[in-house]
Design brief:
This is GntR family transcriptional regulator. One of its GO terms (molecular function) is DNA binding. It comes from Nitratireductor basaltis. By secondary structure, the protein is mainly alpha-helical. The protein folds into 2 domains: about 70 residues, Winged helix-like DNA-binding domain superfamily/Winged helix DNA-binding domain (Arc Repressor Mutant, subunit A), CATH 1.10.10; about 140 residues, GntR ligand-binding domain-like (Four Helix Bundle (Hemerythrin (Met), subunit A)). The chain contains 11 helices and 3 strands; from the N terminus they run αβααββαααααααα. It has a 3-stranded antiparallel β-sheet with strand order 1-3-2. It is globular and about 55 Å long.
């Protein structure tokens, strides 16, 4: 059976899960150069699933193409600034529409996602739970463009968020803030829900910048993209 046939799909999914986990937990360091052959040896799988995993990770902003192969994407503080500005605008619009259009069952499902992220902490489960909360919340708007915009933005901040989420105290605080947002949406309090989302995003941004600045010596120059200008 060829590697790209449906029966082999789980192999690519497992490779993606392992690679993403190693990138999020910084086992694969930002700026580190790698190749398909090196990844084949590291993860014990053949080239096709490695290529599929790399394609997905490039889409998530975790891997970039390099002159000779690939590199784990360096942290880019300028890009993070722009992403959080964008998220603030898009999530504000999404949560206001969510207050108008949500159903109780949808909110219950998001609460379950939030709780799962607190109780099942692994790089992959945390990635899925953190992504699901923001994307599911945006999906309640009923606007697929808002949902896709939030999904892309969250994808591109998820690794930097790991630097903060690896702290239990930070995970507990994020759980509290996420739960508060859902409660406000449930009560259809648009202005308060939008303010809670904005406050949450700005606090996450602040924590990420602090964590990245503190890690400069650890990751070295190649771990950070050059600043503008």
């Amino acid at each position: 059976m060829a590697e790209n046939e449906p029966g082999n799909e789980p192999l690519a999914i497992r490779a993606l899960s392992r690679m993403r986990g190693d990138i999020l937990s910084l086992q694969l360091a930002p700026g580190e150069v790698t190749s398909e052959r090196a990844l084949e040896q590291l993860y014990g799988v053949s080239r096709t699933p490695i290529r599929e995993a790399l394609k997905a990770l490039i889409g998530e902003g975790l891997v970039v193409r390099a002159e000779r192969g690939y590199a784990i994407a360096p942290f880019d503080l300028d890009q993070l600034e722009e992403i959080f500005e964008y998220r603030e605008v898009v999530e504000d619009a999404a949560v206001r529409l969510a207050c108008q259009r949500r159903t109780e069952d949808e909110l219950d499902a998001i609460n379950a996602t939030i709780d799962r992220g607190l109780s099942e902490f692994t790089p992959d489960s945390w990635f899925e739970a953190g992504l699901d909360f923001h994307v599911q919340l945006a999906a309640l708007s009923g606007n697929r463009f808002l949902r896709e915009g939030v999904q892309d933005a969250v994808n591109r901040t998820i690794r930097a968020r790991w630097l903060v989420a690896s702290s239990e105290a930070s995970r507990i605080e994020a759980h509290r803030e996420h739960s508060e947002i859902i409660s406000l949406v449930r009560e259809r309090r648009e202005d308060d829900a939008a303010e809670a989302v904005r406050r949450h995003g700005r606090e996450v941004h602040r924590q990420i910048v602090e964590a990245l600045e503190a890690s400069r010596r650890l990751f070295g120059a190649r771990g950070f993209a050059s600043s503008k200008g």
